[in-house]
Amino acid sequence: MASSMRSLLSDGQQYAETFHEFLNHSTEHQCMLEFIEKKLPAIVQRLAKICKEDNCAALLSRFANRKSTIEILGVGSGTGEIDLQMISQIQTHLPGVLLNYDVIEPTQEHILKFKDLVAKTSDLKNINFTWHMKTSSEYEKDMNETQESKTFDFIHLIQMMYYVKDASSTLKFFKSLLASNGILLILIISGSSGWASLWKTYGHRLPLNDLCVYITSSDIKNMLDEAEYKYTYYELPSEMDITECFVEGSKTGTLLLDFLTETYNFEKTAPPDLKAEIMDTLKQPECSIIRDGKIIFNNTLTALLVEP
Ligand SMILES: C[S@@+](CC[C@H](N)C(=O)[O-])C[C@H]1O[C@@H](n2cnc3c(N)ncnc32)[C@H](O)[C@@H]1O
């Protein structure tokens, strides 16, 4: 690995910019929204301990009568678009229920955008946000130091497990924060995605460090199996248009390449042989398909629901 390559996470602003480009060029959030629309009502239903009946709306309103506050924790929530969609779904199904919504998010730019979005969303009612501008391990450390014993009904770790030092102990920590009947949702890149092939081949030559770990749903499943946790999972097909990465001088392409390699300024800092190999691999069938002249990267995600 060339010494000048460094992790994208080492520069919060660049990270935020590349993430923004990634969202603009992928169906990442669309596939999450589909999952939220189709599956979240059932998740809330399970939270309500009333799984055996058929009429979801009726069940949810019974839950609303029973429980007046739901504690939710979003970890690595980013700029909050997905969180707000989940909030909207939960509130649609549980009108009048108060949501206490904690957010753990270390990137200041993301917290600010999330707060902006909250301020702009006019129909947000019955919700209290608590912002923790820190990493999940800092949060864990603070919880341990203060011996706080807060629990949550719903905790989600969406596309953030790459950024923790010890994924297995992070999973155990957040599972330990679940209230009885609480649900832990993990959304992560699928072991069958283009990312998995890319990382398997090149992970060791990219600036893998404390800040980023190339893990996929296959690794998470192994960890959950090892811990003997029960879970269900769903594959969520998604794609990313990486055509711009092959357009000479494209700013968008440069940012997308940074995001794909998790490397700050990959184009300028990567050794030429590594760059050539990665550019070639990105076009191969294990990573992408060619459709209508565009290069479409396999961005399939996996949603894992861990039982309490
Ligand atoms: C790929 S983004 C996903 C954001 C959001 N969940 C979504 O899917 O739109 C990853 C987020 O995790 C945050 N993050 C990075 N390291 C983290 C850590 N150690 N603990 C918690 N969040 C972290 C980043 O700042 C970023 O906002």
Mind explaining what this structure looks like?
GO terms for molecular function: N-methyltransferase activity. The chain crosses the membrane at residues 177-199. One of its GO terms (biological process) is methylation. Helix 7 links the parallel strand 4 and strand 5. Helices cover 44% and strands 20% of the residues. It has a single domain, classed as Rossmann fold (3-Layer(aba) Sandwich), CATH 3.40.50.150. The N and C termini lie far apart (42 Å). The protein is built from 12 helices and 10 strands. Strands 3-2-1-4-5-10-6 form a 7-stranded mixed β-sheet, sandwiched between helices. A 3-stranded antiparallel β-sheet has the order 7-9-8, with no helix packed on it. Mean pLDDT is 89; it is low at 49-56. With 308 residues, it is of the alpha/beta class. It has helices spanning 12-24, 28-47, 56-66, 81-93, 108-120, 136-146, 167-176, 194-202, 217-226, 251-261, 266-269, 272-282; strands at 69-75, 98-104, 127-132, 152-158, 178-189, 231-236, 239-241, 288-291, 294-298, 301-306.
